[in-house]
UniProtKB/TrEMBL annotation:
<keyword id="KW-0805">Transcription regulation</keyword>
<dbReference type="GO" id="GO:0000976">
    <property type="term" value="F:transcription cis-regulatory region binding"/>
</dbReference>
<keyword id="KW-0804">Transcription</keyword>
<dbReference type="InterPro" id="IPR028082">
    <property type="entry name" value="Peripla_BP_I"/>
</dbReference>
<feature type="domain" description="HTH lacI-type">
    <location>
        <begin position="2"/>
        <end position="58"/>
    </location>
</feature>
<dbReference type="GO" id="GO:0003700">
    <property type="term" value="F:DNA-binding transcription factor activity"/>
</dbReference>
<dbReference type="InterPro" id="IPR000843">
    <property type="entry name" value="HTH_LacI"/>
</dbReference>
<dbReference type="Pfam" id="PF00356">
    <property type="entry name" value="LacI"/>
</dbReference>
<dbReference type="Pfam" id="PF13377">
    <property type="entry name" value="Peripla_BP_3"/>
</dbReference>
<dbReference type="InterPro" id="IPR010982">
    <property type="entry name" value="Lambda_DNA-bd_dom_sf"/>
</dbReference>
<protein>
    <submittedName>
        <fullName>Transcriptional regulator, LacI family</fullName>
    </submittedName>
</protein>
<dbReference type="InterPro" id="IPR046335">
    <property type="entry name" value="LacI/GalR-like_sensor"/>
</dbReference>
<keyword id="KW-0238">DNA-binding</keyword>
C-alpha cells in the first residue's frame, strides 16, 4: 500500500506539501504545475487520502521522561529551558500523570535513544544539532524547541531565526552598524540565535559581529560583556544578548565601565522575563512562552493525531520595545504575545 512518503518521493516534494495538496489546502502557495504533479503521483500510486481524526486520549502514560540536552548545572539559570521543564512538570501534575523522569545528555557517546523504549511518553528539549535521531521510532516522542525532522516527529517549536532577524532589523532601522553578540554555548553545535545573528551581520556588512560567550546567567552576561570591553576590538554600538539575564549582566558591566545604555551601547535581550520592564533602563527583548511550550508538549502526548504528517506547533513571539535599544514605545499589558 502506497504511503504519503512514496507520493512525496515520486512528486519530488516534501511530505508536508503532499498532505496539504491532497487535503485541498488552498492557503498553500505553490505553482499549479507542482500541485498537478502531486495529484498525478498520488493517482499513479493509487494513494488513498486518510481522513484526519483525533485518537482517543492515551491511557497508558505510566512513565514519562524529559530528555534534556542542556547542561544540568545551568538549567535553572536559563530563562528559556527552565520554564519549559516546569511547564512539563506542572501539566503532568494537573493531568494526573506521573512526575516525569529526567535524562540529561552530557555527550553523544553516553546517550542511546533506543533506551527510551521503556517510557510511554518522551519530551526532548534542546536537541539542536545532534544527529543521532535518524531511524528512531517511538509512538510517544515529542520534540520541544527544535525538531530534527518535522516530517517524522511531532514538535512544539519557536522560529528562532525569524525572531532574531526581527531584532537585527530593529537595530538596523535605528541606524546601528557595529554589532555584538553575547550568549551561552550548547552541547552540540552553535545556538540558533547566534548563528542567525552572525548571518544577518555577515549579509548586511560582509563582516562578523563581536562575540563573547558565558553561561546563561546574569553573571555569565556580565563576564561576557567584560570580555568584549577588555578586548582589542572596537566596542559594538548594539549588543544582542541571547537571554535576558545575560542582557542584564551586560548592562551592569557597561555601567561599571562608564558606558550608558542606550546612549553608548544599545542592548536587546531574549525571553521577556518578569524583571525585564523594571531594570534600568527597561529592557527591550523578545517575548516567548516556554512554559506553555512544555504544557502543549504534554497535551500532544495525551491527544496524538492519527496522520502521516506529524503535528508541528509553531509558537508565537514578539519584540517588546522598551528603553535599552534607544527607541522606547509604549507596551501593551504584560502577559500577552
Amino acid at each position: 500500500m502506497a504511503t504519503m512518503k512514496d507520493v512525496a518521493e515520486l512528486a519530488r516534494v516534501s511530505i508536508a506539501i503532499v498532505s496539504r495538496v491532497l487535503n485541498d489546502d488552498r492557503s498553500l502557495s505553490i505553482p499549479d504545475s507542482t500541485r498537478k504533479r502531486v495529484i498525478e503521483a498520488a493517482n499513479q500510486l493509487n494513494y488513498q487520502v486518510k481522513k484526519r481524526r483525533q485518537k482517543s486520549v492515551l491511557k497508558s502514560l505510566k512513565k514519562v521522561a524529559i530528555v534534556d540536552f542542556h547542561p544540568e548545572d545551568q538549567e535553572r539559570d536559563d530563562p528559556y529551558f527552565w520554564p519549559m521543564v516546569q511547564g512539563i512538570e506542572l501539566e503532568c501534575q494537573e493531568q494526573g500523570l506521573p512526575h516525569p523522569s529526567k535524562i540529561y545528555v552530557k555527550s553523544a557517546d553516553e546517550f542511546d535513544p533506543l533506551e527510551l523504549s521503556q517510557y510511554d511518553g518522551v519530551l526532548v528539549i534542546g536537541a539542536e544539532e545532534w544527529s543521532g535521531w535518524e531511524g528512531v521510532r517511538h509512538p510517544g516522542l515529542i520534540f520541544l524547541d527544535h525538531c530534527p525532522n518535522p516530517d517524522e516527529y511531532p514538535s512544539v517549536v519557536l522560529n528562532f531565526a525569524a525572531a532574531v532577524r526581527q531584532v537585527f532589523s530593529h537595530f538596523w532601522k535605528l541606524g546601528y552598524r557595529e554589532f555584538g553578540y553575547i550568549g551561552g554555548l550548547r552541547l552540540f553545535g552553535m545556538d540558533e540565535r547566534e548563528a542567525t545573528f552572525r548571518a544577518c551581520v555577515k549579509s548586511a556588512l560582509g563582516s562578523e559581529p563581536a562575540v563573547a560567550h558565558g553561561d546563561w546567567s546574569t553573571s555569565g552576561g556580565y563576564e561576557a560583556m567584560r570580555a568584549l570591553l577588555e578586548s582589542d576590538i572596537a566596542l559594538p554600538r548594539a549588543i544582542f544578548a541571547a537571554s535576558d539575564p545575560m542582557a542584564i549582566g551586560a548592562i551592569r558591566a557597561l555601567a561599571e565601565a562608564g558606558k550608558k545604555v542606550p546612549e553608548d551601547v544599545a542592548v536587546v535581550g531574549f525571553d521577556d522575563i518578569e524583571v525585564a520592564p523594571y531594570v534600568n533602563p527597561a529592557l527591550t527583548t523578545v517575548r516567548v512562552q516556554p512554559e506553555l511550550m512544555g504544557r502543549i508538549g504534554v497535551r500532544m502526548l495525551l491527544h496524538p493525531y492519527d496522520d502521516e504528517v506529524p503535528l508541528q506547533v509553531v509558537m508565537p513571539y514578539r519584540l517588546v520595545v522598551r528603553e535599552s535599544c534607544g527607541a522606547y514605545e509604549s507596551v501593551p499589558a504584560l502577559g500577552g504575545v
